From TrEMBL:
Keywords of this entry: Coiled coil, Ligase
The organism's place on the tree of life at top rank: Bacteria
Coiled-coil region: 420-467
Matching InterPro entries: Bacillithiol_biosynth_BshC (IPR011199), CC_BshC (IPR055399), Rossmann-like_BshC (IPR055398)
Protein name: Bacillithiol biosynthesis cysteine-adding enzyme BshC
Species of provenance: Candidatus Salinicoccus stercoripullorum
Keyword Transmembrane helix set for record: no
Domain Bacillithiol biosynthesis BshC N-terminal Rossmann-like: 1-375
Residue span, Bacillithiol biosynthesis BshC C-terminal coiled-coil domain: 383-505
Amino acid sequence: MEIECKDFQQDRFTQRFNEGDESLLKYYQDLSYDKESIDSVLGRPVHKHTEELAGIIQSEMSPYGLSRSQEDNIERLKKGQRVVIGGQQAGLFMSPAYIIHKIVTLLVLVAEIKEDHGYEAVPVFWIAGEDHDFEEVNHTHIYDSDHRRKRKISYKPNLTVPMSLGFYKYDKTEMKRVLDRITEGCGDSDFLNGKKDEVGRMIEENDYWTELFHALVHDTFKDEGLLIFNAHSKRARQLEIPMFERMIRSRGEIDAAFREGQAAFDSEADIGRMIETDTNVHLFTGSEYTRTLLTYEDGRFISDEAPADEGELIGRLGETPETFSNNVVTRPLMQEMLFNTLIFAGGGAEVKYWGELHKVFETLDVPMPIVLKRMEIIHEDMRIEKLKDEHGLAFSAEMSDDIERIKEALIESHTDMSFLNEVEEIGERLARDYAGLEEKEERGQYRQLLESNMKMHRKQLDYLKRRYQLTVRRSLRRQLNDLDEVSEKLMPGGVLQERVYHPWVFQGQPPTFPTLSYTTQLTVIKTL
C-alpha cells in the first residue's frame, strides 16, 4: 500500500483558506491549525454541563458495546478534554465513502495533536439524526464490474419521509434486500461475506434509521475510540432546552447577524451565497410525522401546528424538546454550546458556511473552534494504475475530459475517413440525379414517389455510416471500456469517487488505512 498526495481541484476560496489568508481567517476568529491557536482554544473555560453530556453519550453508546479506548475517551470527555468533531447525515450503510473519510480526518487530527502538542483530544462524530432529507441518504452506488459502470442501489426510492430520520422506522426485510444487492455488487470475499452476516444482525437488532447507522459507525471505529453523538437523542434534547430557549428569544439578533455576516463574508471570499433560507427563526419543529421550519410573523411563531407566541413556543419546547431541531444556521451554534471543541473538520461547503455564520457566533458571544477542511481520499488499485500508464493518463480534475479526448482520438485514428467521404459523395450524386429526374414539368405527378425513394436511399446510406462507425468502436471495445473503467472508478460523473461509491467498493478485505497525516491535498491510497 502506497500513499500519494496530490494538488487537486480547489476553488480560489479553498486555496486562500488553506494558505491561511488573514483576510479570510478574521471570519474564523483568526484561528488556524497552529500552536498559537491550539493553545488559545485549550485555555478556554469548560461548559458546566460537560459531565452530563458525556454521561448521555456513554449511556447511548453502551448498548453497542464500548471498547476500552471508547471508555477512556468518555472519561476524558467528562473531565473537560476538548473534542475534534465532524458530522454527517445518516447515509445508507455509511455511504458514500467520504463519511468514512470525515471520521478518518478526526482520528488523524487527534493523533497529530497528541504527538505534536501532548494533548489527548477526543474524536466525536455527530450524526445529524434530526435531518429529514431522505432522498439524500436512501441510496448508494457500487461499481458494476460486469457492465463496467456505476450502478445505483436505493432503499424504497419512491418513499417520502417527511419527519426527522431519527423518527423513521425502517423496513427490515427491504433493508436486507438492499444489503444483499450492495454486498453482491461489491464482489465475493471473506470480508464482505462476514460483513453481510454482521450487518444483517444489526438490521434485526435495531429499528430506526439512525440507530442502524450508529451501530455501523460504532462497529467500524470502536477500536479507534470514536465517540458518537446522535443529535436526535431525546436525552440530548433535554439538555439542549436552555440552548433552544436562548435561540428562540434571540431569534431577531441571530437572523440579523446571519444576514449581515453572510453578506460581508461572501463579498470578501468572492463566492456565491452558501446558505439559502427564508426563515427568520432558523429552527425546526414538528412531531414524529413531520418537520417544519419555524417563521415569525406579527408576534407569532408559524409552523404546521397552531400559531404560538414566544411563551407558548417555549412551553412546547419544555414538554416535547425532541420535536425541536436546528437548521443550517443554528446547528453549528448548538454544537459549540454543547461541546468543548478544539477543531471542527467539515467539507468544503461546511467551511464556507461557518464563515458566513461568524457574526452569529460573535453576537451570541459563542467562541468558534478551529475550522478545518476534511481530508479528501481516493483509492486506486493496481489495475487502474496499469490502465492509466497504458493510456498516458494523469489523475487530475480534468481527467474525465482527458479520457473523452483520448477516446475520440482513438476512434478517429481507426476510422477510414475516405470510406465515409465516398459514402457521402454517393449521397450527393444521388441527390443530384434525383433532382434531374424531377426537373421536367410532366413528371410532377411522380414527385412524391421520387422523394420517397430518395429518402429510402438516404436512410440506407446513413445506416451504412452508423454501422461502419459502430464496427470501428467494436474493434476498439477493450481500449474504450478500459478508459471508461478508469473514469468510472476514479471520477464517476466528473466527481471524486468518495462522493459517489459505497465504502465497501474499495474493501474486499478488512478496511485498513495506513498512517496518514493531515493534509489539504488529495490523498491517494494505492493498493499494490
